[in-house]
């Protein structure tokens, strides 16, 4: 059996609460990766694969993060994963880093919070199948596909609160959504923010100026107490000023005030 999912477990230091008996205790965080085609070996009439997935899901406790990058696959498998994640007691955060298309979009709707990469996509469309037989076989297949579509709409409706008729039309058109549109339509909650180098520089400049203003007041008192009033102005003139190179200037500034603290 080829698994299309993988679990990873990491420990982080738990921030102690007042009521904690074990401050500094470590708690486990689990991450589930759903990559590639869902259920390449179909879960349909297969009791082993769903049971294995459920056993692994319920083998731990705490919040989990589910990373999805999948073109979709077996809608029966997706429905089972959706139900298992929806009933999981901890918080389920879904993060879409590539695409959550077709059946994978159904699984994504199980997240208590759905976060999309700015370069990821969600795609929804009508279910499809392959039929062989006479006209009655095709009629039964049509009825089956209509029922499956309505069940898929249930998952989308719970998350987005959009009218069923609108969701049906979106599926008819095989709707592709980038992160912005997915959030606007309610298929996702937010777009993951990435800090750029420029953002970091702007933050550093602002932070350094604010901190230095406060530090200068403290430093003035330190100099005054150590050297008296007449030498205070001399030492104040030596204080480095932050210019276009905030990090280097801040280092010089910290080295300078070390002799007074």
Protein architecture, described:
- The chain has 261 residues and is an alpha/beta fold.
- It has two domains: 5-191, 2-enoyl-CoA Hydratase, Chain A, domain 1; 197-260.
- Helix content is 47%, strand content 19%.
- The protein has nine helices and eight strands.
- Strands 1, 2, 3, 4, 5, 6, 7 and 8 form an eight-stranded mixed sheet that branches.
- Helix 1 links the parallel strand 2 (26-35) and strand 3 (64-70).
- Helix 1 (48-57) packs parallel to helix 2, helix 7 packs antiparallel against helix 8 and helix 7 runs parallel beside helix 9 (246-257).
- The radius of gyration is 28 Å and the shape is elongated.
- The N and C termini lie far apart (65 Å).
- The model is unreliable at 13-24 and 201-205 (pLDDT under 50).
Briefly summarize what is shown.
With 261 residues, the chain is of the alpha/beta class.
User: Helix/strand/pairing class, anyone?
Assistant: alpha/beta
Instruction: Write down the Rg.
Output: 28 Å
CA distance, first residue to last residue: 65 Å
Strand content: 15-25%
Order of helices and strands: EEHEHEHEEHHEHEHHH
Number of strands: 8
Q: Give the CATH H-level superfamily of the largest domain.
A: 2-enoyl-CoA Hydratase, Chain A, domain 1
How many H/I helical runs? Answer: 9
Low-confidence stretches: 13-24, 201-205
CATH hierarchy class name of the largest domain? Alpha Beta
Helical residue percent band: 40-55%
The pLDDT mean sits at 79
Number of domains: 2
- CATH architectural label of the largest domain: Alpha-Beta Complex
Per CATH, what is the topology of the largest domain?
A: 2-enoyl-CoA Hydratase, Chain A, domain 1
Largest sheet: 8 strands, mixed
Sum up the overall morphology in one term.
elongated
């Amino acid at each position: 059996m080829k698994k299309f999912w993988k679990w990873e477990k990491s420990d982080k230091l738990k921030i102690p609460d007042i009521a904690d008996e074990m401050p500094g205790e470590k708690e486990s965080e689990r991450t589930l990766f759903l990559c590639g085609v869902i259920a390449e070996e179909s879960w349909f009439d297969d009791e082993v694969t769903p049971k294995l997935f459920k056993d692994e899901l319920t083998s731990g406790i705490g919040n989990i993060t589910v990373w999805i990058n999948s073109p979709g696959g077996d809608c029966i498998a997706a429905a089972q994963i959706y139900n298992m994640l929806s009933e999981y007691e901890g918080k389920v955060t879904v993060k879409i880093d590539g695409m959550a298309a077709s059946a994978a979009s159904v699984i994504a709707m199980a997240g208590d919070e759905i976060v999309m990469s700015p370069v990821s996509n969600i795609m929804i469309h009508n279910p499809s199948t392959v039929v062989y037989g006479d006209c009655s076989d095709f009629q039964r297949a049509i009825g089956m596909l209509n029922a499956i579509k309505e069940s898929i709409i249930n998952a989308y409706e719970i998350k987005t609160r959009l009218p069923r008729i609108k969701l049906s039309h979106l599926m008819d058109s095989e709707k592709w959504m980038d992160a912005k549109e997915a959030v606007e339509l309610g298929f996702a909650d937010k777009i993951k923010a990435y800090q750029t180098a420029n953002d970091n520089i702007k933050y550093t400049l602002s932070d350094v100026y604010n901190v230095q203003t406060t530090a200068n007041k403290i430093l003035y008192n330190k100099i005054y107490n150590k050297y008296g009033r007449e030498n205070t102005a001399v030492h104040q003139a030596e204080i480095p000023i932050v210019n276009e190179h905030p990090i280097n200037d801040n280092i010089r500034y910290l080295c300078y005030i070390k002799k007074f603290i």
